[in-house]
Amino acid sequence: MKRIIFPLAFVLAVTLSAVGQKPQGHPAPPSRGAPTHSAPKQAVGGGYIPSHGPRTHTPVPTTDKPDQPGHPAAPHVDAATGRWVGHPAAGAAAYHLDHPWQYGHFPYAIGASHVWRLAGGGPSRFWFDGLYFSVAPADVGYCDGWLWDSDDIVLYPDPDHPGWYLAYNVRLGIYVHVMYLGT
């Protein structure tokens, strides 16, 4: 009988201690929902996640008017085609940095399979998972509708502007240039 009771008690104690563990002082892990690569009902945003960032600069200038009906007058991704609209050409003065990557590179994987939940802040400094970013001054006006404490974003590399990432807002379909500020 003792041969059965002691091992059973040990297994029960280990199981209960594992179940009772709660993370202390850590934000909730980032949302890692399945990416939506097919076009949603909306022309922009609505949960659509582009399978990749812009390949090279093929700019469609962003103006104060939408490029087509149902699209915002801001840099965005067309959910029907996956086309990045409004991405400025390489060498755009607004995105020049004298010291690219001055705070280092983002330490985790980026791209469509990595969705991050914003945890607070605003354009000048926002965060998730203890990692901090800042929106490029030229892009601050494009993130007025962002929910800084709950929107999901996906980070993509910016192939044309060293030192910047593109933060794509899954809900809105709008993206902005962001700089990694570290932990």
Helix coverage percent of residues? Answer: 10-25%
Shape: globular
Overall mean pLDDT: 81
Spell out the helices and strands N to C.
Answer: HEEEEEEEEE
Unreliable runs: 14-39
> Radius of gyration in whole Å, from Cα?
21 Å
First-last Cα distance: 54 Å
Can you tell me the number of structural domains? 1
Offer a quick outline of the entry:
10% of the residues lie in helices and 21% in strands.
What does this structure look like?
This protein is an alpha+beta fold and 183 residues long. It has one domain. The chain has one helix and nine strands; from the N terminus they run αβββββββββ. The strands form two sheets. It has a seven-stranded antiparallel sheet with strand order 3-7-8-9-6-5-4, with no helix packed on it. A two-stranded antiparallel ribbon has the order 1-2. It is globular, with a radius of gyration of 21 Å. The N and C termini lie far apart (54 Å). The relative contact order is 0.20.
